[in-house]
# Entry
Amino acid sequence: MNKPGKKKKNGNGFGRGNPQNIKKLLLKKQVIDIFYKEGMKTISELCEVTNNSIPSITNIMNELSAEGLVKNFGIGKSKGGRKPAIYGLSPDASMIVSIEISRKFSRIAIFNLHNEQIGKILEIPFGLENTENILSILKKESDTLLNTNKIRKSSLLGYGITIPGLIDIKKGISYSYPQFGDRPISETFEELFGLNSFIEHDTKAMAMGEAWFGYARDKSNVLFINIGSGIGLGIFINGELYHGNSGFSGEFGHIQMNPEGELCYCGKIGCLETIASGTALVKKSQMKIKNGKSSIISKIVEGDIEKINLKTIIDAANNGDLFAIELIEEAGEYLAKGISILIHLFNPEAIIIGGEIAEAGNLITDPIRQKLNKYTMLRLKQDTRIVQSELKEKAGLMGTIPMVVNKTIAQNYENLNLLARPFPES
# Structure
């Protein structure tokens, strides 16, 4: 125990009894947060936002620049005097590794602090349901991607990871994938990578990507529908991502569409996923082609119907294959029924159709728009736009970037606030 009057040092060498150092660190974190969320600023603009003097902010800019975190991006427009210098985050000061884990495949990408992709997206044909070694595979492949792009691990801010299924945000555990055990998933990945790792539900991450970088920018009430192997829903209410009480909101694919329908993997009968998901379309195409249905899908997979996936069907439809187009249109009608319920409940500004199905473009959005006339009150329908995802396959990967940045900054604020507290006397 420390004796009364002694000051313990923290890891950065600053004593708890030095409020000036603590204040400076807090201001640095605040400035970094502003740069990331709002973009480049002049010193006078930072003074106004942070309520600090020009000498204080100038000193902070000099220190952050020396640390390589902030960069002078040139001269801005004059507002009556000298043209001011514009500052912002140095894009390569830190990197974020984004990992999207699906049922049958995974994808990895690297982004800088300007949200720019570094190198190519690495796609791996392994996911949560077709291998027992997903963790070791992700570790190996992410390290390979870093080495390929000559990025040192010391330059990473952290890892952002998306997974499907039920994730309890309070406990941080997955109820859909028992291989993660009963401990917080983030802890498993932090041990794996040796760095901060943050977890988000795949559809919610996609919705976050659209809110920061896609169609939902500057919009408050937006729904994002992820249609891939399953069907999920991301909900923005008054500009905030809605998780629900435990984090389970958005299970749109499990509303009942056909009481006499097929058994869903969730254990219920006739869920929307059994009719309109990528898995349902693949299953239906395989069955009909096996029974003699003519389609260029067979040519694409060279006669091996087990190789059919959602991308195969979309490629065939985009090349004018009538059977593939009919499959997508039929899914669109059932989706329209479900979407009409969402419109009546939420009255959103827009509904974004995303996930793998977004590659179908108007082939999926046109039948949805058309059938909404049948199922939705006109006044409510007129208030809601149905649009395709602008980010498409990158939505989930990009949605992890602000999550990693914001949560890292929040953690640093918390740590600094702890530093500012006095030690109890021994």
Summary: The chain has three domains: 19-90, 95-206+397-410, 215-390.
